[in-house]
Amino acid sequence: METVWAVPAQVGRSLGDDVIGYGVEAEDGSIGTVVRLSPVPGFGHLVIDAGVWRFGRSVVVPAGLVTAVDDGRKMIKVGCTKDQIKDAPRFERDQDTGDLYYLRHLGAYYESLAAAPE
Protein backbone atom coordinates (compact mmCIF):
# COMPACT_ATOMS: atom_id res chain seq x y z
CA MET A 1 0.00 0.00 0.00
CA GLU A 2 1.54 3.28 -1.12
CA THR A 3 -0.06 5.25 1.69
CA VAL A 4 -2.94 4.38 3.92
CA TRP A 5 -4.57 7.75 3.16
CA ALA A 6 -4.65 7.71 -0.67
CA VAL A 7 -6.93 5.66 -2.91
CA PRO A 8 -4.72 3.05 -4.64
CA ALA A 9 -4.11 3.69 -8.35
CA GLN A 10 -5.56 0.29 -9.32
CA VAL A 11 -9.00 1.45 -8.10
CA GLY A 12 -9.02 3.67 -11.19
CA ARG A 13 -10.84 6.67 -9.74
CA SER A 14 -10.82 9.12 -6.90
CA LEU A 15 -13.46 9.37 -4.21
CA GLY A 16 -15.72 12.39 -4.37
CA ASP A 17 -19.04 13.40 -2.92
CA ASP A 18 -20.68 11.09 -5.48
CA VAL A 19 -19.86 8.10 -3.23
CA ILE A 20 -21.80 9.45 -0.25
CA GLY A 21 -24.60 6.95 0.25
CA TYR A 22 -22.66 4.05 -1.28
CA GLY A 23 -22.56 0.80 0.67
CA VAL A 24 -19.22 -0.46 1.97
CA GLU A 25 -18.17 -4.12 2.05
CA ALA A 26 -15.26 -5.58 4.00
CA GLU A 27 -13.62 -8.86 2.94
CA ASP A 28 -16.18 -10.72 5.06
CA GLY A 29 -19.38 -8.74 4.60
CA SER A 30 -21.19 -5.44 4.74
CA ILE A 31 -19.98 -2.63 7.00
CA GLY A 32 -22.46 0.16 6.35
CA THR A 33 -22.94 3.29 4.27
CA VAL A 34 -20.62 6.22 3.47
CA VAL A 35 -21.93 9.33 5.23
CA ARG A 36 -19.04 11.70 4.51
CA LEU A 37 -15.47 11.95 3.27
CA SER A 38 -12.33 13.36 4.85
CA PRO A 39 -12.18 17.11 5.35
CA VAL A 40 -8.40 16.92 6.01
CA PRO A 41 -6.00 17.27 3.04
CA GLY A 42 -3.56 14.35 2.89
CA PHE A 43 -5.70 12.14 5.15
CA GLY A 44 -8.31 10.72 2.77
CA HIS A 45 -10.85 8.56 4.56
CA LEU A 46 -14.45 7.44 4.58
CA VAL A 47 -16.77 7.95 7.53
CA ILE A 48 -19.17 5.02 7.49
CA ASP A 49 -22.46 4.69 9.35
CA ALA A 50 -22.14 1.13 10.57
CA GLY A 51 -25.60 1.03 12.15
CA VAL A 52 -26.37 -1.86 14.47
CA TRP A 53 -23.16 -3.70 13.46
CA ARG A 54 -21.13 -1.09 15.34
CA PHE A 55 -23.63 -0.43 18.12
CA GLY A 56 -25.00 2.61 16.33
CA ARG A 57 -21.59 4.20 15.83
CA SER A 58 -19.80 5.37 12.76
CA VAL A 59 -16.36 4.08 11.80
CA VAL A 60 -13.46 5.64 9.89
CA VAL A 61 -11.70 3.71 7.13
CA PRO A 62 -8.65 5.23 5.38
CA ALA A 63 -8.96 5.64 1.59
CA GLY A 64 -5.89 3.43 1.05
CA LEU A 65 -7.94 0.38 2.05
CA VAL A 66 -10.37 0.84 -0.85
CA THR A 67 -9.91 -2.03 -3.32
CA ALA A 68 -12.80 -1.34 -5.71
CA VAL A 69 -15.63 1.07 -6.44
CA ASP A 70 -18.67 -0.31 -8.26
CA ASP A 71 -20.71 2.67 -9.42
CA GLY A 72 -23.39 0.41 -10.90
CA ARG A 73 -24.06 -1.25 -7.53
CA LYS A 74 -23.14 1.89 -5.56
CA MET A 75 -20.69 -0.19 -3.55
CA ILE A 76 -17.15 0.33 -2.23
CA LYS A 77 -15.00 -2.66 -1.27
CA VAL A 78 -12.23 -2.41 1.31
CA GLY A 79 -9.32 -4.76 1.92
CA CYS A 80 -9.82 -5.61 5.58
CA THR A 81 -12.23 -7.59 7.74
CA LYS A 82 -15.09 -6.38 9.89
CA ASP A 83 -13.17 -7.41 13.01
CA GLN A 84 -10.14 -5.37 11.93
CA ILE A 85 -12.40 -2.34 11.51
CA LYS A 86 -14.06 -3.02 14.89
CA ASP A 87 -10.61 -3.18 16.52
CA ALA A 88 -9.46 0.13 15.00
CA PRO A 89 -9.15 3.21 17.22
CA ARG A 90 -12.60 4.70 17.70
CA PHE A 91 -13.48 8.35 17.54
CA GLU A 92 -15.60 9.87 20.27
CA ARG A 93 -16.87 13.01 18.56
CA ASP A 94 -17.47 13.91 14.93
CA GLN A 95 -14.72 16.54 15.04
CA ASP A 96 -12.23 13.78 15.94
CA THR A 97 -12.38 12.61 12.32
CA GLY A 98 -10.48 15.79 11.47
CA ASP A 99 -8.08 15.64 14.43
CA LEU A 100 -4.50 14.93 13.32
CA TYR A 101 -3.60 13.05 16.52
CA TYR A 102 -6.53 10.66 16.04
CA LEU A 103 -5.84 10.27 12.31
CA ARG A 104 -2.15 9.47 12.89
CA HIS A 105 -3.12 6.88 15.53
CA LEU A 106 -5.68 5.36 13.15
CA GLY A 107 -3.17 5.35 10.28
CA ALA A 108 -0.56 3.58 12.40
CA TYR A 109 -3.12 0.87 13.25
CA TYR A 110 -4.02 0.21 9.60
CA GLU A 111 -0.37 0.41 8.48
CA SER A 112 0.47 -2.26 11.08
CA LEU A 113 -2.14 -4.55 9.49
CA ALA A 114 -0.55 -4.10 6.06
CA ALA A 115 2.90 -4.87 7.49
CA ALA A 116 1.80 -7.95 9.46
CA PRO A 117 2.73 -11.33 7.97
CA GLU A 118 -0.21 -13.39 6.76
From TrEMBL:
Record InterPro entries: Bac_photo_RC_H_C, PRC_barrel-like_sf
Its GO biological process annotations read: photosynthesis, light reaction
Q: Which domain of life is it from?
A: Bacteria
According to the UniProt record, one GO cellular component term is: plasma membrane light-harvesting complex
Name of the protein described by the UniProt record = PRC-barrel domain containing protein
List the source organism: Streptomyces sp. NBC_01401
